[in-house]
Amino acid sequence: NKKPKIVILGAGYGGIMTASRLIKSNTQQDAEITLVNKHNYHYQTTWLHEPAAGTLHHDKTRMEISSVIDLKKINFIKDSVVEIKKDEKKVILENGEVDYDYLVIGLGSEPETFGIPGVNENSFAIRSVNSVRLLREHIEYMFASYNKEDEKHEDILTFVVAGAGFTGIEFVGELSERVPELCEEYDIDPKKVKIYSVEAAPTALPGFDEELVEYAMNVLESRGVEFKINTPIKEVQDGKVLLNDGEEIKSQTIVWTTGIRGSSIIEDSGFETMRGRVKVEKDLRAPGYDNVFIIGDCALIINEEINRPYPPTAQIAIQQAYTCSKNLKDLISGKEELDVFKPEIQGTVASLGGKEAIGLVGDRKLYGGSASAMKKIIDNKYLFQLGGVPLVLKKGKFNFF
Ligand code: FAD
């Protein structure tokens, strides 16, 4: 009697927590479990705005998979997924292939460009350790370059962040904290530096509480950030952003944060998607594929109260991992009735750099220091869920005051 094979694609929040929960429930006794990931480390996507701006070292946001997952209990393959052959129950990797009886897809997201020309070619993204390390180096290089030439080019010190959603605002927060340090280090007058936050919607942080949005904008404006709200971008060219209203902003650093779509592998593998995400069944399985679970940013679930999709968050990815691992265990032990996934939104906190943040926890609005402390508690809580106290002590955030 051969054990069924469970294959998990991606070791982000959704994938690694699924692996961790399967081990906790001893599922490896009844199934052969394999985790596939591009890198031999897990990184925390929700922290990436910090290493992107250089306010935190990127090693703080990542950890070796072997340090949090017992690789005696499951197999780990370090490789990139190329295609899912769902009808043959097989996954094609860059350097091989794996077959499965049950599949979990947690491959995360890609930047949404809305078809705007030039975005991929001419802008930076905040999506992985590799992409943010490059962005941080580039920002420092801009500061280092400025004083080199006799003729000063202002675009070298102009930073454009496209999209004032959560990621854009959190990055602008970190960058505006980092700029004074960089100016000091590279002997540059802070007045020469410009940071633009450009947003197509009529407000920054669309969908968020108005008072909190105003607070956030005031904090960032006081650090010199210039908002261009209600201002769609028409095109991104090498060294400039063209706005719908005809204006252009010259900049050597354009950072694209206008939202995400699901990993293109899913669409390319023939799943039906909306913005690259699969509208999953209530038990998190893909429609028509009873042996395929899709979680995290690759999955679309509807908030029935407002009849709109839940925004893609780590919070939901982690909660889905709990339901997904339970459902896998149940399926393997022959149960037919699976658990229904129901997100419990515990709160949303956006950091604004330094000790500033805003948040909504239950009905409570949080500002400044208390919101910033809450953000760190949330970050530490995840580390605790994944690796217990030792991981919190190793990677946690403790600079509360
Ligand atoms: P991810 O965590 O992105 O993991 C995907 C994994 O798949 C990665 O490890 C990647 O290496 C791997 N992978 C991708 N492609 C391949 C491939 N082809 N082959 C093999 N492996 C592959 N959410 C919150 O809840 N709260 C927040 O405060 C918050 N802040 C954020 C701040 C920033 C700057 C950003 C960018 C996002 C933030 N989010 C936040 C959103 C959150 O990070 C995502 O919703 C979450 O990471 C989704 O988890 P996931 O498991 O689907 O994907």
UniProtKB/TrEMBL annotation:
Sequence ranges assigned to domain FAD/NAD(P)-binding in this UniProt record: 5-321
InterPro entries tied to this protein: FAD/NAD-bd_sf, FAD/NAD-binding_dom, NADH-Q_oxidoreductase
Obligatory cofactor(s): FAD
A molecular function GO annotation: NAD(P)H dehydrogenase (quinone) activity
Gene3D superfamilies, per database record: 3.50.50.100
GO terms under biological process: aerobic electron transport chain
Keyword annotations: FAD, Flavoprotein, Oxidoreductase
Top-level taxon in the UniProt lineage: Bacteria
Homology family: Belongs to the NADH dehydrogenase family.
PANTHER family named among the record's database cross-references: 64 KDA MITOCHONDRIAL NADH DEHYDROGENASE (EUROFUNG) (PTHR42913:SF3), APOPTOSIS-INDUCING FACTOR 1 (PTHR42913)
Protein known as: FAD-dependent oxidoreductase
